[in-house]
Each structure stands twice: as C-alpha cells, then as structure tokens.
Amino acid sequence: MKGTIENEKFDTKMETSDWRYSASIVGIIKYFNYLVERGYEVESELYKIDDDVISYNSKAITEERYLLFVEHYFESAMHHKVIEQILANDEFIDEQIKLVNDKLKANTIMKKVFGDFKFSSENKEIILEKIKENRLLLIKETYRNGDSLYKNFTNTNSLFKESGSVCRIQNYNIDTGRKSKSISYNWDFKTYIFEDEKEFDFIPFAFSKSYESFFINNNYSIKQLFNTNNLISNSDNPRSTLFCDLKNSADFIDFDVEVITKSRDKDYFETLYIRKDAIRIFDNIKNYNAIKIKYRVNENYNRYLEKEVTDSILNNIKIDNLIEMLLKPKQDTSKYKYPNYSYNIKTLIEINTLIYGGDKMDKQMKSAYSSAKRVMAEIPENKVDSYKQKLISAITFKDYERFCEILLQLSSYSGVIFDFAYDLFEDFEENKNIAYTFINALNKENGGKVNE
Asked: CB-based contacts of 237: which residues, under 8 Å, 6+ apart?
C-alpha cells in the first residue's frame, strides 16, 4: 500500500501489504543505495525504514537516474556496455571484432542507432561517440524489451507511466475492452480493482537474475526482506542458494513464507509457500547436491529433478515415482552410459521418509540396508540382479503381494533373515521407503560374489 505524506521530510510512504509492494520496496532501496554510492545523494535525505514501512523522497526518482541504475544493475545485459568494455583496449583480436559487430545489431534499438555500421580498429571513437549520444535511449529500449529484463515482469508499454487504471505487472494487466465483464463482479466493471503504482517499475530489481527468478516475500520487516533477497540476487540457481547455501545463514527463513517465482518461458507469476515442515526437511538434507539430478529420458530430452524434488517438499507430495524411475534399469548406448544413481536414490528415500512423516522408520531402513549387504555377500551378483529386477517390477506395478513373495524367496535362497519385512507385510504402502532402501542397497558397490 502506498500513501502520501504532508509537510514532512519525506513525501511518500509504502508498506509491505502484498508481494508487489514488498518487491517494489526492495527495488527502490537498491536504487537509492546506488544513488548514495555514486555520490548523488546522502541516505538520510532519501529514505527511512520503520519495520514494514518505508518513507522516501519520491522526487529523487527520475527517469535519467533510473536508467543509469538499470545500466549498472543489469550491465551484462546491456549490449553497448559490452562494446565499451572491449573498445577500452588499444588492440583487438578477431573474436573481439566479431563480438562488437554482433552487438551492434543485437536488438532493434542497436540496429536503429548504428544501422549498417561495422567496427574496425580505426573507427572505435565513432562508435563510442554514438553510444554517448544515445546512451539513455539504448538503455531504455534494451531494458524495456529484454526477455530477462523489464519485459519479463511487466507490460513493456508501462515503463515510466503514471499509475494507471490497469496494473502494469504481467498477468495482472488485462484488455479492458475485451475482458471487462469476465473479471468484474456481477457484470459491473467498476467493481474490479485495478491496483497500479508507478513504483512497480522497480519490481525487476527485486527478483534474482536467474532464468527462474525468485522473490522471497518474508516481509516481517523491510530490513530482513531486503537482506534475504540480496543474498539470492545474483544466484544462477536460487533454489539451491535458498534451500542449501543459506541454511546456516542468519538471514535464512525459519518461519512460513511466500516465495514468488517468474520463469522467462511463462507470462505469469507463480507462488511457492515454504512452511515450517518443509524447512525442517530441507534442514535435514545431508547433501543437497544429491538432488541435482540430470536424468536422461532419451537423446533429445533430459529431466532436471531438483525443481521436482523441491516442489514436492514444499507441497508435501511423496516422491515415490521419482525413486522408482531411478531404480528402474537403464539401457546404455554407444554414446551414453547412465550414471549410478544409488547415492541420489538414498538421499531421495531419506527425503521421502520425512515427507511420509515416518521418523520411526529409520531403524527398519537401517535393517533393510544391512540385510541387502548380507545378501550381496551370500549369493552371486547375477542372482542379485535378477531378484532386484523382480522387486523393482513388482513395486513399480504396485503389486505389493508379489513383492513380499519375492522377498521371502530371496530370504530363503540367501539364508538371510529380513527382520524389516514384517513392517512391509503389515502395511506396505506406509512403509514403502523400507522397500526402496532394500532395493537400492542391492548394488554392485556393496560387493557380491562372482557370477555363477
């Protein structure tokens, strides 16, 4: 929520009433901090923070300063900045000349400013002068239409516009001429709330700079809100940063919180809710890297399981299907050899057990693991593989009675008593992770007799 302040040092205030305002506040603070760092202003004249409210001087927000901040914050996405960095040299190699020429026609505004102009070592001053003359235009149009920049979050035609009747944020804006009846109450268009603020232009600075952008709306206080999002700002993988790298950080969230995500291939925002139960599971993952699994479905398609696993944790959804997929045998080809997923599966089983809420299962899972090791020591490897495939087949087809029959046969053949099996006989569905543990432990890495 935004309001005006009369007859005081600051003329505007904003509070973290929903994620859009929270994100705007984070972006505005980054902008103001930039002004202070560059010596344009002193912080005490720009803003002050009181818990979940920021008061600030709106007159310090100008189009020119905003664009210069864009150039600084998204420097790697500014084609003219790449050119300037290269042209700072006295001599150029062929690769640099090619890159400059590619950048001169990298987007519509670069083509408009430079036309058919081509770089050679003799004309660099002409290029630098053109950049200087058109700097703000180059920044504005590159930013406004960049797939990873303003365009990813907001309506490209809304940049620098005053608050309008339609919200500028992606999927919050509508075609009022075509959709007014469908989004209003009782067919009365006046009942629809079009909440828009000029400050929403600062939202892109609040999200992480990754393909799947994250904004953590832990708005208990603006200070904590800013610090937490600053930690993931430059992360290429905010999921990993949030759920692994920040676990031991003082700014790690330890309460229920909302996370807003925006992927570049989607024209809408999505919401993740991180609850205390999920935080407990993430905190118990011994090796987060074990869930960063690239699973080859075929030569044209890979599944990256980190997102699926973390989403399952957040939504308290069991990951039986992922475990069973990795347990199934894979056929190597001349071009590709499948990795051993045993350690990954072990981690997924541990996570799945926590999702099931079966902390008491730990003792029986240890029993299943040690039983599998004893089996490997007692019977030939080819026999182990045969029984393992039968067990995998039974569990993936949810033929639990058949699974128990095979288990009894294996116990009889190997001479190993399976104490853990009684829990499976009693309630297989609830104790499935014990079965997964046993299958996964029937692995070559555990040793085994020579084949018959």
From this structure: 210, 306
Query: 151-170: buried (b, 16+ CB within 10 Å) or exposed (e) per residue?
Result: bbbbbeebbeeeeeebbbbb
Asked if residue 48 belongs to a domain, the reply is yes
Domain range for 80: 62-206
Evaluate whether residue 280 is within a structural domain: no
Give me Rg for the CA atoms of the chain: 29
Single pTM value for the model:
0.83
Q: CB neighbours (10 Å) of residue 252? A: 17
Assess whether 240 and 379 both reside in one domain. no
Q: Which amino acid is at 388?
A: K
Q: Which two tokens stand for residue 359?
A: 């902390």
Q: For residue 382, what are its two tokens?
A: 């080819």
The domain boundary residue, chosen from 166, 188, 206: 206
pLDDT in tens, 111-165: 999 999 999 878 899 999 999 999 999 999 999 999 999 999 999 999 999 998 8
Are residues 154 and 128 part of one domain? yes
- Cα 118 to chain centroid distance, Å, stands at 39
- Describe the chain by its helix, strand, coil percentages, rounded to 5: 55, 10, 35
Tell me whether residue 414 is in a domain: yes
| Cβ atoms 431, 361 nearer than 8 A | yes
448 falls within a domain: no
